[in-house]
Amino acid sequence: MMLLSTQLTAVVLAMAPSLVSAGMFPKDSLVKALDHKSFKQAMKANETSLVAFVAPWCGHCQKMVPEYSKAALGLYPLIPTYAVNCHAEKNKRLCSEQGVQGFPTVKLFPRGNSMPPVLYEKERTATGFWYFATRGVPNALEKFSYVDQIPGWVSGKQKKYRALLLTKVKKVPLLWRVLANKYSGTDLLFGTHRDRKGKSSIEMGLEAGGKKEAKVLLYPIGSTTPFRYRGILKQDSLSKFFDSVLDGTADLSEVVEKTKEEEYVENPEEAEIAKKQEAQRIALMHGGFTDMVDFEKAMLAGGAADYHDTHGYGGMMGDIPGSLKKAKAPETPGVSAGSATITEHPATTTTAAEVSDAPESVAATVEPTKAAPKDEL
Question: How many Cβ atoms are within 10 Å of 323's Cβ, its own excluded?
């Protein structure tokens, strides 16, 4: 009877992949599990990503999970956060190729396959992971301190498209840095200028704009006259727009006009994630300061307090334009913020005492005396 039950369980698991999604990470975690195939696919994307190579039996890995999940929430959706189960037979070759000698091993891949990964060697905290990832996005844009520097860049780079961001905030938004990195090596160049009070916009023949308003200008190849992008300043919307521009099959004026028609639809799942991010991101930034006094100074200086003003909600620059708040997606019963991510199963036993913060060696992958760890995260 026991054998039959075991066989039946194995069949059910084989037929229902959703039931074997991860157990190390909680079901609402935004960490995505990768195997040897999906890892290669993820690395084809020209983007910065954070990857943890782990094993279910590893005590240090289990200890890291809450911190890594917090970092994933703060990084979402601009910097994907992944985990690879090196205990699974199908992933062992991948982990060996990535030079994994102990668990956990965390690496930042600055630009997919096109740049070598960087090993994370500091304390495994959410703040540490978050700063490591956000500061690890390669610089692939021109930053103009003065408005009179822009014409030279525009006229000198006419063999390519040029995308210029006029922003009211001090720091370059992470979204713009991520996009510049993504399109690095293409016929699209990125630039940014801080237009704090809108004076630069006026000098360029535009309106000053609202307090938090950002503007995106696109200069066609061979032209110094820009088109004004008037769509949603969100990662997926801007990516779709830039892809259309680079595709070259449509008239640019038509492409720009189409961006005006896009409606902002509030997805309940994304809204819930954004709500959690508000507190989480401030907490992550707080962790980067040595004491509360430094953090309070940063708050007063607009450091942590205006995080969303700078980096946006859910990967959007600035606030949602009032004219775009047109629709709300219907609520879907039973859908959680992490329904498409890793889910939970009973915790596995560990094989080594957590006596230090050093990664547990691959050589220590002794089968536990109780139940063998599952191959899924």
Answer: 10
Give CA–CA dist 86/21, Å, rounded: 15
User: Which three-class secondary structure state does DSSP give residue 215?
Assistant: strand
DSSP string over 54-84: E-TT-HHHHHHHHHHHHHHHHHTTTS-EEEE
DSSP 372: P
Give CATH for domain 32-136.
Answer: 3.40.30.10
Residue in this structure with the two tokens 């943890």, named with its chain if needed: 52
**First and final C-alpha spacing in the chain:** 28
* Residue ranges of the chain that CATH labels 3.40.30.10: 32-136, 142-259
Q: Which residue is associated with the tokens 């070598």?
A: 116
Instruction: Give the chain's largest Cα–Cα span.
Output: 81
Other beta carbons within 10 Å of 234:
21
The CATH number assigned to the domain with range 142-259 reads 3.40.30.10
Chunk the chain into consecutive blocks of 10 residues (it has 377) and report each block's average pLDDT, rounded to whole numbers.
Answer: 36 29 80 96 95 97 96 95 97 97 97 96 95 96 98 98 96 96 97 96 95 94 95 93 90 84 78 80 65 49 47 57 48 37 33 49 48 55
> pLDDT value at position 374?
55
How confident is the model at residue 372, as a pLDDT?
A: 45
* CB-based contacts of 40-43 (< 8 A; 24+ apart in sequence): 42/80, 42/82, 42/112, 43/109, 43/112, 43/113
C-alpha separations of 27 from 31, 232, 302, 342 in Å: 10, 30, 34, 5
* Measured distance CA(366)–CA(326) in Å, rounded: 57
Burial 286-309 (b: 16+ CB within 10 A, else e): bbbbeeeeebeebeeeebbeebbb
